[in-house]
Amino acid sequence: MSALRAASHAFLLTWQSIFRDKAALLLFFISGIVYSFFYPLPYSAETVRRVPVAIVDQDHSALSRQLIRYAGAHSAILVVAVSTRPEAAQKLIWQGQAAGAMIIPADFSRKVLAGLQPEIDISGHGAYPLLNKVVLNGLAEVAGTVSAGIELKRLSAMTPSGTQAEASRQPLGVEALPLFNVREGYASYIVPGVVVLIMQQTFLLGIGLLFGSWSSEKSFPYAQDAASYCGALTAFALVVALNAMYFFGFVFWWQDYPRGGNLAGTAMLTLLFAYSVAALGMLIGMFFRTRERSMQLLVATSLPIMFLSGLTWPASAIPAPLQVLGWLLPSTAAIQGFVATNQMGASLHEVRMELAGLLGLATVFVVLGLRKWRRIVPPR
């Protein structure tokens, strides 16, 4: 009973310390609310549309004008200039007024009428990968649509009806249906993974802030026993779990992201993620001697950790030593696991590696943290 009383006392002391420290309160609760509304805002449109392009028409034929009209009607493209000189399009790209260009050669219609295959030059601004992809795909779709129309006219001249011509050109119909990211949007892809990293980093900062304050002021509030450690650990883990419930339960619904695929799996991952982050935060925090040290050392780690997680960079393209390093952090297993269970509806068996990784990290961090706890915390 005394151990339970000590754990409960440490649990309450931790919550009191959080609410008394304005900076810790900001990191643990307010920052998550701010992130949840302002971070997804730039991606609210989900897909990039109306990217400016320049068109160089050196053919001046009815067919080239049709190609320009099709480009103007494409939802992803905005034709900002039509010229006869490639230098004009290049200047617009250098000035940032266009993200790509399409050059229609002078012999375009002549080759089409002769039954030959003309070539259209399409270029994009490589400095902006997302815009570059939209420009290249959009202009390629425009060229493909015009090409299909020309081919259908040729086939119609050899077949009794337009329906037969269309069937002979494309005997198999293909309809692509995205399974999970149904809108194929950037926000639905990046935000569910990034919020896991946001939770981890803000909690590590907050826990380090509290421990740094206690160390510098020599006012550590806990006793030197395992029960107090477990009480404080559970308090910090509860903070992580509450934020996870807010993001996965409310924010994803509010922003209309894919969600709720496997609630039981998400709950299991949340429990393991909460304890692994809390244990890691306490282990790191016990090495800080000043309040500011957590900010100085942890803020710069967010971007490398993001790349190590395999979300924005394919895990298969990451060198093996860096992959091992990434799995030493809770965020890597948590990001992959949460996306799989919450967005894709993966079963517990399918995320067994992520569950085992988080369980192993939580165990190691608790063992190391408890040893450090008994060494540096003076008895009351």
Folded structure, characterized:
The protein has 380 residues and is an alpha/beta fold. It is built from 15 helices and 4 strands. Strands 2-1-3-4 form a 4-stranded mixed beta sheet, sandwiched between helices. It is elongated and about 95 Å long. The two termini are 19 Å apart. The model has no long low-confidence stretch (mean pLDDT 83).
Q: What is the topological layout?
A:
Layout: H1 2-20, H2 22-38, E1 51-57, H3 62-73, E2 77-83, H4 86-94, E3 100-104, H5 108-113, E4 121-124, H6 129-156, H7 162-169, H8 186-217, H9 226-255, H10 263-285, H11 293-298, H12 302-308, H13 320-326, H14 330-343, H15 352-376
Parallel strand pairs: 1-2, 1-3
Antiparallel strand pairs: 3-4
Report the biggest beta sheet as strand number plus sense, adding barrel if it closes. Answer: 4 strands, mixed
Q: CA-to-CA gap between the ends?
A: 19 Å
How many domains? The number is 2
Structural class: alpha/beta
Number of helices: 15
Radius of gyration: 29 Å
Task: Tell the overall outline.
Answer: elongated
Helical fraction: 55-70%
Mean pLDDT across the residues is: 83
**Helix and strand pattern:** HHEHEHEHEHHHHHHHHHH
Strand line-up of the largest beta sheet = 2-1-3-4
Question: Roughly what fraction of the amino acids lie in strands?
Answer: 5-15%
Report the strand count: 4
Report low-confidence residues grouped into runs of 5 or more.
Answer: none
